[in-house]
Amino acid sequence: MSRLLSAALAAALLGGCATTASERPAAATASAAAASVAYPGTYRPIAAAPVLIAGATVLTGDGQRLEDSDVLLQDGRIAAVGRNLDAPAGAQRVDGRGKWVTPGIIDVHSHLGVYPSPGARAHSDGNEMTAPNTAQVWAEHSVWPQDPGFGAALAGGITSLQILPGSANLVGGRGVTLKNIAATTVQDMKFPGAPYGLKMACGENPKRVYGQKGGPATRMGNVAGYRQALIDAAEYRSKQAGDSPGKRDLKLETLAGAMDGDILVHIHCYRADEMAQMLDLANEFDFRITAFHHGVEAYKIADRLAADGVCGALWADWWGFKMEAFDGIQENIAIVDRAPGGCAIVHSDSDEGIQRLNQEAAKVIANARRVGIDIAPEHAIRWLTENAAKSLGVLEQTGTLTPGKMGDVVLWNGNPFSVYALAEQVWIDGAHVFDRFDPARQPVSDFMLGQGAAATGGAR
């Protein structure tokens, strides 16, 4: 169990696509319905008084920068953004002068909870390395809410994150999107209404893990494995729509859900040629890829990614740690972003990087500037908010400071893309869940109690 050092917050916690449904075959609707009732989320926003952050520089997350402006949170939502807003009775007033406000940061590729930090072999639950296709497993069934990494990420402004299985398998299983709040169970953290993700992986990892265990042992074996799995899923889907659906199959149910657009497909893939092959695979089996993750060669096919509506969830500057990561360049994200219609995202895939994802984005700005590409803060913030929310299927709920969306907000001590930037205060659904200067609002995992360590508050 994890908890905030506040009885009121703890009590509140415990209280709590491609086609339309009419166009989908009966099997898809039945599959989605079955998944929706299994392990339902129990997240409930923490009750909170209205909050008025006044006089700050506001990056709205959709390309706008507003100077000397206010953000009003009310009933857990963004109520208004603008100048000289009136605070309702009983509102908490926060002085934002000299500070910056952004939407809550979203990490689309995290393994917190399934590979906790600090790590222990007993808690290494991210890769089900028993078969090349383990589409039947769900990352949420491995998430350990006591992971101190969640609190450290919150101190870096992370308000939502997608937890994915690892990349050992061709199909690794379902990912889950969470709100970054202290909770007893993963169900208490599940982002309301967020679709599941499907983690797939191409390239070196599957063939390395299974090359001596029956295959695949080559890249052509990888692709054959995807194709066979999708053929089986298509047959299962057709059978489920018939008069004799037969026994439920969790593996094929997940793949059928991805083919129907109910489950969003996220693919670990480094090389441009392999990303192109995966796009061809999607065309062959008529499904949509939501995002390629890592993609150190995404810059080579930036135009195609943009044309196909596929996001690139990428590192700022990781490269060279294995052969398929050899041809990376530091301008990768900037080039993917620059393509007309491009969707660039800065992700972490790291329990440390998630604590300072804003600084990872700052690296991209600096590297782009060196080659003559100027990127303003109001644009760059989209890599961490709007585009990230889009790739997770939750843009209608979060990712920008649009009135009516969730009140997920970060107050920074200055420009969030400065090396000196720190998240001072964080609100999730309008509730004040982190304050750098108030230990009572710094989440402490039960795992850390009695360890003689300071609270996790502070991305250092």
What does this protein structure show overall?
With 460 residues, the protein is an alpha/beta fold. It has a single domain, classed as Alpha-Beta Barrel (TIM Barrel), CATH 3.20.20.140. It is 25% helix and 21% strand. A hairpin with a 5-residue loop joins strand 2 and strand 3. Helix 2 packs across helix 5, helix 5 (219-240) runs parallel beside helix 7 and helix 8 packs across helix 9. Mean pLDDT is 92; it is low at 1-29 and 455-460.
For the structure shown, list the relevant keywords:
single chain; alpha/beta; TIM Barrel; 8-stranded mixed beta sheet; 12 helices; globular; disordered N terminus; disordered C terminus
Biggest sheet statistics? 8 strands, mixed
* CATH class (first level) name: Alpha Beta
Question: Roughly how much helix do the residues carry, as a percent range?
Answer: 25-40%
Instruction: Quote the average pLDDT.
Output: 92
Query: CATH superfamily membership, which one?
Result: Metal-dependent hydrolases
- CATH topology description: TIM Barrel
Radius of gyration: 22 Å
% residues in beta strands? 15-25%
| Unreliable parts | 1-29, 455-460
Coarse structural class: alpha/beta
Number of helices: 12
CATH architecture: Alpha-Beta Barrel
The count of strands amounts to 18
CA-CA gap between termini: 24 Å
Our count of domains comes out at: 1
Order of helices and strands: EHHEEEEEEHEEEHHHEHEHEHEHHHEEEE
The rough form would be described as: globular
